[in-house]
Amino acid sequence: MTAQTTPDTARRGPTTREPARGERWIRRTPLLPGLLFVIAMTQIPFLFTVYYSFQDSNLLRPDSGSFAGIANYGRVLGDPLFRNAVANTVVLTAGAVLLSLALGLALAVLLDRSFPGRGVVRTLLITPFLVMPVAAALLWKTSVYHPVYGLLNWALSPFGIEADWVNDFPLLSVVMVLTWQWTPFMMLIMLAGLQSQSPEVLEAARVDGARPLAVFRRITFPHLRRFVELALLLGTIYIVQTFDAVYMITQGGPGQASTNLPYFIYLQAFRAFDVGEAAAAGVIVVAATLVVAMFALRVVSSLFEEES
Amino acid sequence: MASVGFEKATHFYPGTEAPAVDELSLEVEDGEFLVLVGPSGCGKSTSLRMLAGLEEVDSGTIRIGGEDVTDSSPLERDIAMVFQSYALYPHMSVAQNMGFALEMAKVARPERERRVLEAARLLDLEPLLHRRPKALSGGQRQRVAMGRAIVREPRVFLMDEPLSNLDAQLRVSTRTQIAALQKRLGVTTVYVTHDQVEAMTMGDRVAVLKDGVLQQCDSPVRLYEHPANAFVAGFIGSPAMNLREFPLSREGVRVGDAALPLTPGQRRRLADEGASSALLGFRPEAVDLVGEGEGFAMEVGLVEHLGADCYLYGGLPGHPADGDLVVRVAPHAAPAAGGTVRLGVRPGRVHVFSPGTGERLDG
Ligand SMILES: Nc1ncnc2c1ncn2[C@@H]1O[C@H](COP(=O)(O)OP(=O)(O)OP(=O)(O)O)[C@@H](O)[C@H]1O
Ligand SMILES: [Mg+2]
């Protein structure tokens, strides 16, 4: 044993001493329970989902449960309702992420300067993020969007605008709630970015004759790049999974006008009881999210790279 | 190129009672190299930032080229600043860093590139023009920061401790380069440092600040030979001037077992203050070893050989608690530690200050 390992250690050089095998396990054991717990809670359900996605499994047909190959995937991908849900998800996610990012950036820029009561304002601005999504959705549905008692119609009535928001603009309604909820998150990331800037660099730019807008565009924005990327990525991953707002406000309707992917999967599993197809759709969504997130990040990165 | 003038310029930071800069009045001539020097926290950076327009002037005026710029923004002042941290734009190449101000001033691209290249040649930066600041050494970054200022051909250069992040050797060579460059370009320069050697070697004139108050603004030689008060006397020079209170006697000051004469004017002013002692200062090199019966005695505690010079550290016999005196002697004449020597201060090289106010007493 020793004879075999000697040349190995010699090659590694004097500074990095690899611990012996037994020692390594002693070091790892304390981490093991956590690791096992995470695997049990996340990977086992996912593996079950993958398993069901290849089964012809429908709760209404107790005799079902045979291996179905990729038939579920074929049916899901061929389903026009699924494609409709994909389109809705894209609109919903892109709309909410971009809007909340823009608003968050604007608020962060305002919060970045000192004024009396800044701490209070910051706390108040963060609160929407602390409200439970279901509660927020319910609140918006009943007190903002309601065609008769809603605040939105009341506020817009002087301009002659009145609408049954949830019925006439279902996607927009959901996007607005999500934007309201996610703006604080974006704001915090942008604020962290702004405050990590060297004040001397900003002063140097001012002395170099840059006007405030030029300072923002040429100095601050390139610095914020990484923070924008992070915000886009995290925001997208979270908002793709939106279920509460759709369920509470529009129920995916009218018709399928605001059904997004999570709601589609919910309908498949708990309204149509087609577990197989729902599982297949779930697997597709997970895979697609991963691919899209990675791809989007690349594109965004390269765009910024050219910019600077 | 322009002159610079401070007129009773005062700045308070919010939430502080004492002003960071208190009624600073200074005139810098066109093309002059003025150094602001003083201990940490004395308001050097604040003065410079007021001149740059980065800090508000609470009262008083600031002029550049004779025109009142007290309330104008940095971009209207046509000044270039070198920051202590260099403050290079991290996402821009060296060339972009240097050309940024010209770009902001809407200088056409060919002209911009020509001027950047010219400055890069001057500073040996040509091979680095496409690098990012991250990929540069400290000294190279310093030169880029200088280049960024030079390219603009501004009316005034402002530099806030631009050498403090360099190692000792590089600091000395860069020091002479900056001074030479300034002479060549002839741009009025205000330079901040806490290093009195830098101040003495670089400045046409040096302004010494303490607690936000200007102590003295003079040529380096005058500052050294004719300090306006005890603070300047102690701050300028290395090793520092020997500064000590000695009791007054009938005809002068008692130093150990000897008496140093005072002029009638000095005696009168000390008497007016009701002082029983005088604050005497003499530089380590203003002292000669003298024979028995002359001068005053010093017990030598430590002998420091530096090759060309030799410093003796010691105290008056019987007053060990008074702190050390420092004396420079020729190496071959150096006594051994533990002995006693007799010292005579050269006539005219004794500075007399008021023990109460520290002010210089002449006449
Ligand atoms: N932003 C600030 N808020 C409050 N007080 C400040 C601020 N900046 C500086 N001061 C105070 O103002 C005084 C002058 O500061 P300044 O930065 O001008 O000193 P300095 O001479 O440049 O010192 P150093 O050599 O350490 O850089 C100091 O007492 C400092 O504590
Ligand atoms: Mg400073």
Give an account of the 3D structure.
The complex is a heterodimer of chains A (308) and B (363). Chain A has 308 residues and is mainly alpha-helical. Chain A has a single domain (55-307), classed as Orthogonal Bundle (MetI-like fold). Chain A is 75% helix and 1% strand. In chain A, strands 1-2 form a two-stranded antiparallel sheet. In chain A, α4 (71-78) crosses α15 (275-307), α5 runs parallel beside α10 and α10 crosses α12. The longest helix of chain A is centred in the C-terminal third of the chain and has 33 residues, at 275-307. The radius of gyration of chain A is 26 Å and the shape is globular. Chain B folds into two domains: 4-234, Rossmann fold; 241-353, OB fold (Dihydrolipoamide Acetyltransferase, E2P). Chain B is built from ten helices and 20 strands. In chain B, α3 packs across α4. The two termini of chain B are 40 Å apart. By secondary structure, chain B is an alpha+beta fold. Chain A binds chain B through residues 198, 200-201, 203-211, 214, 218-219, 222-223, 225, 308, and chain B through 52-54, 73-75, 79-81, 83-85, 87-92, 100-101, 104-105, 148, 152. Bound molecules: adenosine-5'-triphosphate and magnesium ion. Magnesium ion binds at residues 44-45, 160 of chain B.
Name the descriptors:
heterodimer; A: 308 residues; mainly alpha; MetI-like fold; two-stranded antiparallel ribbon; 15 helices; globular; disordered N terminus; B: 363 residues; alpha+beta; Rossmann fold; OB fold (Dihydrolipoamide Acetyltransferase, E2P); 2 domains; 6-stranded mixed beta sheet; 5-stranded antiparallel beta sheet; 10 helices; elongated; binds adenosine-5'-triphosphate; binds magnesium ion
Brief description of this entry?
The complex is a heterodimer of chains A (308) and B (363). Chain A has 15 helices and 2 strands. Chain A is mainly alpha-helical.
